[in-house]
Every structure is written in structure tokens, then in C-alpha cells.
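Whiteboard transcription, Tuesday session. T.W. wrote the C-alpha cells on the left side:
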């Protein structure tokens, strides 16, 4: 009886968190049901939020990080969501008025930046407290962009008023050691320390011993898989004025020591980016956004491969309430097929959201 009660409660909780499981959001005319998002709300001192990254949960809780908006001090705030706490403000330090949480590891370590009077990078172990990440000699500002799933590496930048450099912080116990990444940017990092970024107008992978350009021209990397074998991003495609250029979603896969490129199909043929990737049920599933051509509204999308590993047209993820006039954007995905991003609510308010892929 206890097991049956627990099962019933688990189903009820899942349906409350992920409405598509109850058959909500069925497409008009009896088509395939929409994948509806769940709003993750806002912290008590903000009216809205943006979702950045999601971890896998497990020993530690499932966690989503992002940025609070419409906050009481008119500055963005670093926020973290769990099912038990809802959306909470992580606070600030060192005189900062604002902050943003950019990455979350599976052990609950958060990385991000502090702003509003300062420019600093922070790391926050599970349950805190927030700590500053060090800077290279002569640098005045720092920012953290991502943390590896295993929590061993953080990437970001150090800079002065005249320029800067990409950096990687490596964890050793409770300490973090900083190293410079020569030239280019650092936007994401894998469990083996491989850093995805760009230099000279091309996406590249950097390690302390190698620097490898990914195939293609005028490309940008947005994310790297936890095992370091898959990178997603986009390339710029020139087009006649007044268009100028648009974004084409891209996928790079490491096989046999070599990187190969694949162009993903855009939502309506123009302006799409691949933003996150994770292995779900043995397949690399990619999330991002694209624009619908007739109304130029940003839509959250997911690319799922077929049995042969081929990617077709992206699947559109619904906005809050299934509203066709509301925009949405997917940023990250975990191994359970849970997608995090942002969607417009009523009016101009935006909320961090989660989609559960069926």
C-alpha cells in the first residue's frame, strides 16, 4: 500500500510539473500534442527570470540556474531553481549590485558573474557560500560562462579596459587555479577540460596541448557535450541586403580523432541557433531556437536524430500556455530530456521554463 501511495504521489507530482503527461496541450485537430513548458517562476525580489542551464540531478537535486529580471534594485540577479525551493536569489558579494548564474554542475556547483559596480566571476558550491574566482595578474574584470558537468572546470574571461583573454579555472579540492587560453573566447567546457569557443571568426576546441579549428567558415560554438565529442553552434550565412546575414544551426562530431560538420535544418529556413546538447537514451539531442518566417517570432526547438543518427526538421517546443503569439528560447538540456530556457508570459514578463521531452 505504501508503494502504491508513493507511486500515485509521484505521478501526481510529475503531472503537476510536466502538464504534457496528462494530455494537456493537445494540438488543434487531434494532431501530435504540443510539448508544453512549465514556468519556474521568479525569486521574491524579481518579477521575471531567464533560464540558462540545467544539471542531471541524481545524488544532488535537479537544479536550473539563470538570471532574475525586473528586480527591486534594477539589476539582474543570479537565481537557482529546485523543485523543493522554487526560484531563489543567490545573492551577491564584493560590492556587486547584480549577478547572473551561467552554469550548474551535477554536484550543484554554480558559476557566473557579478556586476553592477564591479566585474567579477564567482563560484558557489552546493548550499554556498559564494566565492570569487581569481584573476590573472594585471586584469581588472572577470566573468564565468560555463562549468563542466563534473564540476572540475570553469571557463570565462579576464579583461582590462583595453582588452582581455579567455581563461579556464581548474578545481583542486576547494581551490581553483586559473590559466590563460591564448586568443579567442571560451563559452563552454567538457568534463575532460576541452574548451569550446571561437577565434578568428571560426569555432574551435582548445586544450592545454592543442588548439583545433572546427570545420566551416564564419562559425561560432555555443556548447560542448560533457564527454567533449559533440559541439553545437551556428555559422553566419551572407544574404542580399537588407538581410545582410543570418544564422544557420551547426553540429560538429568528433570521430576517429577528426571533427566533422553537419548543418542542421532551420525552423523555417532562416535564423536558427543550436544552443545545447546532451545524450538522451543513447542519442545526441540538440536544443536551440529559430524564427517562424510569417511572423518573425522566436521559437524554442529541438533536433532529435532518427535511428541512423540523421537529423531532420526541428520539433517546435510550445511557449507558456501554448500561446502561438508568445516567443520561447531553449538553452540547455540534460540526459533525462529535460530542456531549460525562457518563454514570454502574459504581457512583457518572461520566465525561466522547463520542457520535458516525451
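and on the right, the sequence the group agreed on:
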Amino acid at each position: 500500500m505504501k508503494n502504491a501511495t508513493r507511486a500515485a504521489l509521484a505521478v501526481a507530482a510529475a503531472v503537476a510539473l510536466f502538464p504534457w503527461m496528462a494530455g494537456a496541450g493537445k494540438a488543434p485537430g487531434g494532431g501530435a500534442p504540443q510539448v508544453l513548458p512549465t514556468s519556474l517562476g521568479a525569486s521574491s525580489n524579481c518579477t521575471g527570470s531567464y533560464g540558462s542551464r540545467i544539471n542531471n540531478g541524481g545524488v544532488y537535486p535537479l537544479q536550473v540556474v539563470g538570471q532574475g529580471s525586473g528586480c527591486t534594485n534594477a539589476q539582474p540577479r543570479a537565481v537557482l531553481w529546485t523543485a523543493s525551493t522554487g526560484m531563489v536569489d543567490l545573492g551577491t558579494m564584493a560590492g556587486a549590485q547584480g549577478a547572473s548564474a551561467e552554469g550548474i554542475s551535477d554536484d550543484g556547483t554554480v558559476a557566473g558573474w557579478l556586476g553592477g559596480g564591479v566585474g567579477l566571476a564567482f563560484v558557489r558550491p552546493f548550499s554556498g557560500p559564494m566565492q570569487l574566482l581569481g584573476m590573472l595578474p594585471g586584469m581588472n574584470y572577470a566573468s564565468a560562462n560555463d562549468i563542466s558537468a563534473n564540476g572540475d572546470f570553469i571557463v570565462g574571461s579576464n579583461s582590462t579596459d583595453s582588452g582581455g583573454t579567455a581563461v579556464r579555472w581548474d578545481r583542486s579540492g576547494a581551490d581553483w587555479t586559473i590559466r590563460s587560453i591564448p586568443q579567442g573566447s571560451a563559452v563552454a567546457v567538457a568534463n575532460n577540460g576541452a574548451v569550446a569557443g571561437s577565434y578568428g571568426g571560426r569555432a574551435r576546441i582548445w586544450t592545454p596541448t592543442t588548439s583545433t579549428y572546427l570545420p566551416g567558415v564564419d562559425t561560432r560554438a555555443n556548447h560542448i557535450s560533457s564527454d567533449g565529442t559533440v559541439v553545437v553552434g551556428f555559422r553566419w550565412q551572407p544574404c542580399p541586403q537588407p538581410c545582410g546575414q543570418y544564422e544557420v544551426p551547426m553540429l560538429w562530431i568528433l570521430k576517429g580523432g577528426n571533427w566533422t560538420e553537419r548543418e542542421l535544418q532551420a525552423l523555417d529556413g532562416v535564423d536558427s541557433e543550436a544552443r545545447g546538447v546532451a545524450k538522451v537514451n543513447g542519442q545526441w539531442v540538440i536544443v536551440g531556437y529559430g524564427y517562424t518566417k510569417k511572423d518573425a517570432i522566436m521559437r524554442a526547438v529541438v533536433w532529435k536524430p532518427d535511428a541512423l543518427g540523421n537529423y531532420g526538421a526541428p520539433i517546435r517546443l510550445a511557449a507558456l500556455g501554448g500561446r502561438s503569439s508568445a516567443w520561447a528560447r531553449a538553452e540547455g538540456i540534460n540526459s533525462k530530456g529535460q530542456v531549460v530556457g525562457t518563454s514570454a508570459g502574459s504581457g512583457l514578463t518572461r520566465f525561466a521554463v522547463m520542457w520535458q521531452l516525451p
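Someone added at the bottom: DSSP finds one helix and 28 strands in the chain.
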